[in-house]
Amino acid sequence: MALKKLAGKKTEEKSGQKSQKRILFVCTGNTCRSVMAAALARQALAAKPLAGASVEIGSAGLAALPGDGASPGAITVMGEKGVDLRGHGAVLLTRRDVEQADLVLTMSAGHREALVRLAPQCAGKIHTVAQYAGRHGDVPDPFGRDDQVYRQVAALLETLVVAALRRLGEEWAAEKI
Question: What is the pLDDT of residues 32-87, one digit of tens each?
Fold first, then answer.
């Protein structure tokens, strides 16, 4: 399970306590884009938590080989941002992962379409990260490319993740009204 593997202990929602929310980032192999997006989301939330919610971040891949490490480019580029991905192990996405998430953010429209086919009842919470952040297009796959391409993808992901978290915070705050 992608969320359980990467997350800490579950918390129960009680009056006066933060509610537990789950965000799942999805790509193909869970060695580049979704791993970087999840790490950037954790970093952004550590700097500026969402009010009223404890957020669990996970990542998974539609065609992941379980246990595969993060790609060398992802390790290098995220290391430059102060994030160590050397302990990452790829997670193969399951329907249950999608069902348990409050929000699923994919790297491409193709990933989104595959997830909607896998869990059609969850279609309303599955978005591309770009679309959810108010942008268009897919996040390019840097796999097998040089570190400069990984830097460009990481910069794009950072922009998209921050915008997505901002939107998410606004939506979750509106739910409490």
Answer: 999 999 999 999 999 998 877 789 999 999 999 999 999 999 999 999 999 999 99
Two structure tokens written together for 136 = 């268009």
- Spell out the residues 6+ positions from residue 83 whose beta carbon is closer than 8 angstroms to its own: 39, 40, 42, 43
Q: How far is CA 54 from CA 1, 62, 106, in A?
A: 19, 26, 21
Is residue 6, in this structure, part of any structural domain at all? no
Domain that holds residue 156: 20-175
Structure tokens belonging to residue 104:
């699923």
- Tell me the DSSP string of 28-82: SSSSSHHHHHHHHHHHHHHHSPPTTEEEEEEEEETT--TTPPPPHHHHHHHHHTT
Q: Which residues are catalytic?
A: 27, 33, 141
pTM of the predicted model, to two decimals?
A: 0.89
Q: Which amino acid is at 113?
A: E
Q: Is the dihedral of CA 81, 125, 97, 12 positive or negative?
A: positive
Count: domains in the chain:
1
How far apart are alpha carbons 164 and 40 in whole angstroms? 12
d(CA 77, CA 80): 5
